[in-house]
Design a protein that fits this description.
alpha+beta; 4 strands; 13% strand
Length: 171
Amino acid sequence: MPLNLLNILQKNYKNKTNTIYCYRKVKWVKFYKKYFFWKFETYLVTLKKKDWLIFTWILRIGVCGTFIGHGYNAIQVKSAWIKLITSVGFTDSFARSAMPIIGFADMIVALLALAKPSRYLFYWAAFWCTITAVSRVIAGEGVQELLERFANIACPLVLGFLYSDNRKSIY
């Protein structure tokens, strides 16, 4: 890496400017029994404050929508979801009594994602989405159900990483 690029990276990190660094690593490619060296490339993309706000708000609205939708269905005690709770060893009556509580907790997470975002909230949301997606696999619905719900895991996980520095929020 050129010295001036290294200085730019260190300077931007110290100033906490909103620069995303995307690297493509050095790759060796075998082609007709010879090795070719692909050069190291560095891309710098600077996002303005407005762009960061739009980016985080889109993700926060996505997390909010996910948790409001699932919370609403849990409050209504959706019968298809009873199997997800009973498959991990709980009784049917426990599942029916716990689902409204889980639904209200999901609603609270949804509102906090918009009103008071924090890394702990988003890490909890990613953890909870992972647990619920894995419960579908345990219940016998197949790995496809886990893969289908990966966006529900990825959005709060990205927000958790974005909010994981020492600042309370992006701006």
